[in-house]
Design brief:
Strand content: 15-25%
CATH architecture: 2-Layer Sandwich
CATH topology: Muramoyl-pentapeptide Carboxypeptidase, domain 2
Shape: globular
Structural class: alpha+beta
Number of domains: 1
Distance between the termini: 17 Å
Strand order of the largest sheet: 2-4-5-7-6
Number of strands: 7
Helix content: 10-25%
CATH class: Alpha Beta
Oligomer: single chain
């Protein structure tokens, strides 16, 4: 299966799992390579154009996540509300999910009320416990992503996936030519 590298001037790439600043406390990815299935890459491009039309940019925190990486996250935080059980498969491991936020035109992320991977109820899309401005920013991201063909995950304001994600096969790092792990 072909995965496309996301390297658009309209999308900022900040792959958190290629750094130790994630829930495991260590870099999971050996290299910061942002890949998606071609269908997801096209949907991300649509979302980026919609964001630009509103004076914003997309900042991608994660995209294709090999099954091997999913196991690392599961071992660190085995809570199926926030981390997909790798035995059942993750939409990231299918190359059809992104974790992202909106940033202003200068690239500064907008306030979403919690950081990426804050694995608490405050990260739920519908949380009213975050400031109103953060709620508005989450709604703006939701509108952009939905209009571009993505489906949200209710427990994480940052996670979006293609609606028919289950039809795509699970992929290991070998599908990426060993470029990530």
């Amino acid at each position: 299966m072909t995965l496309l590298e996301i390297a658009s001037p309209d999308v900022d790439i900040d792959l958190i799992y290629a750094t130790p600043a994630n829930i495991t406390g260590r870099a999971i990815y050996r290299r910061a390579v942002c890949l998606l299935h071609p269908d997801a890459a096209a949907a991300l491009d649509r979302a980026a154009r919609l964001a630009l039309g509103q004076g914003c940019r997309l900042r991608v925190y994660d995209a294709f996540r090999p099954v091997e990486a999913q196991w690392s996250l599961w071992r660190a935080f085995p809570d199926p509300e926030f981390i997909a059980d790798p035995r059942q498969g993750s939409t990231h491991a299918r190359g059809v999910a992104v974790d992202l936020t909106l940033a202003d035109a200068g690239g500064t992320p907008l306030d979403m009320g919690t950081p990426f991977d804050d694995l608490t109820p405050l990260s739920h899309h519908g949380s009213t416990a975050v400031p109103p401005a953060a709620q508005a920013n989450r709604s703006r991201l939701l509108g952009i992503m939905t209009a571009a063909g993505w489906r949200h995950y209710a427990s994480e304001w940052w996670h979006y996936q293609l609606p028919d994600a289950g039809r795509y096969p699970l992929l290991w790092d070998g599908a990426a030519g060993g470029r990530i792990m």
